[in-house]
Amino acid sequence: MTSEDIRQRFLDFFEQRGHKIIPSASLVPSDYGDNGTLFTTAGMQPLIPYLLGKPHPAGTRIADVQKCLRTIDIDDVGDNRHNTFFEMLGNWSLGDYFKKESIPWSFDFLTNKEYGLGLDPARFYVTVFAGTKEIPRDEGSIKIWQEVFTKYDLTNKVAGEDEMFKDGVRIIPLGVDDNFWIAGDTGPCGGDTEIFYDTQPEKGAPIGKFNNLVESFRLIEVWNNVFMEFNKTPEGKYEPLAAKNVDTGMGLERTTAVVNGQDNIFATDLFAPILSEIKQQVANFDEKASRIVADHVRTAVFMIADGVVPSNTDRGYILRRIIRRAVRFADQMQADTEVARKVAEVVIEKYKKVYPELEKNRDKILAELNKEEEKFRKTLAQGLKEFEKNQDPFDLYQTFGFPIELTEELAKERGLTIDRQKFDEQMAKHQEISKAGSEQKFKGGLAGHSDQTVKYHTATHLLHSALRQVLGKDVGQKGSNITDERLRFDFAYPTKLTDKEKAEVEKIVNDNISADLLVCRIELTKDEAEKTGALHFFGEKYGDNVSIYYIGDGIEDAVSKEFCGGPHVENTGALGRFKITKEEATSAGVRRIKAILE
Ligand code: SER
To answer: I need a labelling partner for 474 at 20 to 30 A (CA). Which of 101, 287, 296, 579 fits?
Structure first.
């Protein structure tokens, strides 16, 4: 059965049971409730206001296929079942039906040969919510499952607290970590029942601990039914919802694999054409690397279609990392240039019928991918030059953001080995310093920390670097003072600035603001810090470990880098327009600039 059939069967099944079909919402959450996630991570997310009680225009029964994105498992992509973008099939009751309809429907759809997926009923096992001190065990779901299993002539015993399969156990109660669902930290939530499929029935009925059977990939979760009864408040209280809801989610990738007897999602038709294109684009095909490329390019295509572009902030930054990771793994297989674009063409072809936004944004998607790939290749080339000079993996990591795996690859290609142990030790030390540093991150530098003073602080760094650019490297900071209303910056320079010089300085600062550059902080030992060329002043006494703020892609070609305790904004885009309001002398050889952000 193809993925197209599965989507259609799912929607038809629920339409026939009174559900209205709604289109997928964007991957970029809009006004549908802010639970702190950058992307739509679950089918329920766009429905949060309705799950909290707002009437939905389509009524109280809804079904959909929702685009979702989770990067939490990005390092596991390449195994049999993890991916970043995925589609979730879901049916929803907004204060309408509850467990006794939802559970039997799920089982009917999974097993019915005529209108469902036709899977063998005997291969299913379920978990239910075991409860907490305050919330009782979900006896309702247990009873309904027992009735369903009896109807299909299956064993239906409930496991004890040992969570063991034995003697006909088919229902496993599990606690909050496994069977209580919430998106993010607050919002609608409740206990759930998860449906697992046995991938190795030839081994006989499962025996042993539930979690071991999941970890060994014998049991695979295909569908989750959440019974939402609470709203978790920011204070951590569980308030009962006015109306009880059902939120179900079935991952299309896994389901397609299971239905077709495949043991991994990359074997399904959702990925097969993408992988065969990758095969054509590379000289040294590698299974795992190609899966990563396929997953990441597919994700990037959907992100760009929903309006995300590569940048150094939030969503754009995640997209940038995903594209760069794809290119890196493609290059490990010796890919052709424009590999992301070529693979993306196949993704668009495969998905455009279901998601017309892909075709609509085709040119933009391909152009953004090409642009980012090219940019990354330039960084790589620059880093490679450096690599030929200096193979210290930690330097390469710090300065060029070279992942250790990449440095190892480069070394291997040249018949060199790198000292991985030394890198790991340096990395651990670095992380410790960063941690210690971040705990005292607000100590240095500024008196007040209102949003506005923080902005002026970052603007001061940009001003300083612009002055050095326009007036020369001898411009040295002599003093700085910031209030909520303005910044004041004193610097060594012999003569009055001309109007042209002032305009130039303003332009450089404003260009750096428009470029929405990332403001980054690293902690280094004093010696390491000095090597970066970061500015420091006043013959100040610095401790053994110092904090540096740099503005831009990497510390090497940062627009500004200074020893500084912060705090700063995260992105220069937050600053607004920079304007010099006054330029005057304070003493012989020292000039003072006052400037505002509009
Ligand atoms: N919200 C639940 C999940 O994502 C069911 O849709 O698993």
So the answer is: 579
